């Protein structure tokens, strides 16, 4: 995987093969960050990266100037790899080893962007729990967005607070936002 833009543009990061991950493709990541770039100033936001795996998305935010990034993953090897990589690049990434659902039930800190990249074979009810917990626990800032990466075979448009989705090859990003009050 490589960092697309920012301070570390072009840097390649090679994760150990034994990690249980499926990193977001460079093409999909570049398209996603083009969308985010049009919505936010990277140095003014906070990011929560759920099911962070290799840390691919967190590194991209850090390279673009985001100072407040939290990566959550249940796998110790993933957390260790993110810590080592972030330390090597001097990136401001805080890691938390936790089951994502347990973390979402307990945390009280809202973020501007919450990015979730759960396993593509997750049951639909597990995908549904992510926005449910995020909105139930007020974990998005007022102008924030929850982005869930999933397979094009998984449909999330029926879930509350769904805004829109974008497809890139076999990847989809579904965007969820706070409903505007009338």
From TrEMBL:
<dbReference type="GO" id="GO:0008168">
    <property type="term" value="F:methyltransferase activity"/>
</dbReference>
<dbReference type="InterPro" id="IPR004398">
    <property type="entry name" value="RNA_MeTrfase_RsmD"/>
</dbReference>
<dbReference type="InterPro" id="IPR029063">
    <property type="entry name" value="SAM-dependent_MTases_sf"/>
</dbReference>
<dbReference type="GO" id="GO:0003676">
    <property type="term" value="F:nucleic acid binding"/>
</dbReference>
<dbReference type="Pfam" id="PF03602">
    <property type="entry name" value="Cons_hypoth95"/>
</dbReference>
<keyword id="KW-0489">Methyltransferase</keyword>
<dbReference type="GO" id="GO:0031167">
    <property type="term" value="P:rRNA methylation"/>
</dbReference>
<protein>
    <submittedName>
        <fullName>16S rRNA (Guanine(966)-N(2))-methyltransferase RsmD</fullName>
    </submittedName>
</protein>
<dbReference type="InterPro" id="IPR002052">
    <property type="entry name" value="DNA_methylase_N6_adenine_CS"/>
</dbReference>
<keyword id="KW-0808">Transferase</keyword>
């Amino acid at each position: 995987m490589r960092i697309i833009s920012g301070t570390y543009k072009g840097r390649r990061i090679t994760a150990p093969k034994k990690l249980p991950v499926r990193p977001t493709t460079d093409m999909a990541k570049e398209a996603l960050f083009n969308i985010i770039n049009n919505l936010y100033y990277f140095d003014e936001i906070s990011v929560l990266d759920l099911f962070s795996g290799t840390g691919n998305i967190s590194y991209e935010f850090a390279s673009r100037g985001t100072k407040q990034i939290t990566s959550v993953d249940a796998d110790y090897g993933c957390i260790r790899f993110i810590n080592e990589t972030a330390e090597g690049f001097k990136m401001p990434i805080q890691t938390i080893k936790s089951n994502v659902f347990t973390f979402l039930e307990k945390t009280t800190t809202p973020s501007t962007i919450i990015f979730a990249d759960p396993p593509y074979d997750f049951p639909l009810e597990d995908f549904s729990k992510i926005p449910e917990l995020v909105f139930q626990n007020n974990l998005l800032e007022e102008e924030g967005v929850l982005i869930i990466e999933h397979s094009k075979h998984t449909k999330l448009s029926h879930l509350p607070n769904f805004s829109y989705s974008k497809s890139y090859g076999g990847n989809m990003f579904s965007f969820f936002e706070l409903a505007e009050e009338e």
